[in-house]
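A brief tutorial aside. Many learners find it easier to grasp structure tokens once they have seen a single protein encoded end to end. The record that follows does exactly this for DUF885 domain-containing protein. Read the sequence first, then the structure, and try to relate runs of similar tokens to stretches of the chain.
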Amino acid sequence: MAIRLLALSLTLLAACSSSQRLTADQPATLDAAAEQYVRLTLSIGEHEPGYVDAYYGPAEWADEAKSVKRPLAELRAAVIDLDRRLHRIDTVSLSAMEAKRKAFLSAQLAAARTRLDMLAGAKLSFDDEAEGLFAVRPELKPLSAYDPILAEIDARLAGTGPLWKRFDQRSSRTAIPSARLDGVMRASIDECRRRTVRHIALPHDERFTLEFVTQQSWSGYNWYKGNATSLIQINTDLPVLISRAVDLGCHEGYPGHHVLNMLLEQRLYKGRGWVEFSVYPLYSPQSLLAEGSANYGIELAFPGEDRLAFEAGTLYPLAGLDPATAAQDIELLQMRNKLSGARLTIAKDYLDGRITRDEAVKLTQKYQLLSPERAEQSIDFTGKYRTYVVNYGWGLDLVRRFVSSAGASPTDRWAAMERILSEPTIPSDLVQPSTSATK
């Protein structure tokens, strides 16, 4: 480890002493391109709070970005120029892992260009924006395709009144009392971690802090701080349902965002000195991999009846809830999960201006089976983060298909998941056979 850290220090020292901009006749190298990519990302972040989701690289680079706010047009020209130089690097001369590194940088730069266009006032369609930022063009079903699922759930929930209201009344019974929330969440995260470390080796000093917050449009967030450390926040604006404990524990923690960021830092930034993995721009293909793998991590960590056994045996008693209802609660949750694609269809119609916000809220109540308050929160998220929502459902589908193609055994599937989490992966990699890159 000491040798690796010394090598990293020397790499960063050389990078810091190099010129920030390549001259017109200077050939690009992956290391030089990576440094410029990081500097450009930090400069773009000065135009949009939240654009840089995490950064733990050289502090002087962040200080420089803050001290000189570069104009959007200048940044856009620099991104285009850097991508052009990157394409001039002969891929044939690269190892398999270096070729993945080059492709990753190019995909991230394409997203940066799109975001700069948006910051400058460009109005893109839902499809064009999703493709420009996250390198996917999702094929969405019409809302009518989800009506049979609603009918199936309707038949299972006796009573009168709108289906969303009956479903919400049933779900509300599983709310975790606020006094028990910390204990339930910590038990859930601990179990998610225990299941993850069976298959993926994590840094010995990895850790997280858990906080409960309010006034957010999201239900949970992982703020990665570097050095194998995360801040995990849970939003308590609305009661947290027992089903969210495992979801959030896996998604924000293990094998989700916390593990992804740790492995990229440990194996690529520190292990190889690849500085591009010291920064995470939110609006980039990196997010599709992050959200898709975090969502798939739930079913990977809790296959088959494992989730029911853990929730009924541990979480329900901790929350003071009746374990006898756990089986039906999970069954209804799984049925509602079949409606997840409707969220994207509603988001597309809303962002493309085909429906109003009020209509989007009502459709979210109907097709996501949410209370007015939860539907409002969902549309608030869409209004703020826009096409970012594709990363949850579409990313999940891509990751699930890729990992499933690795084989039926847990060992094979966890190994495929680990490659996604620890290699320079882009969305198009997930439509290829599951193989590992060599050095």
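Self-check: The two ends are 18 Å apart (CA to CA). If you spotted this yourself, you are ready for the next section.
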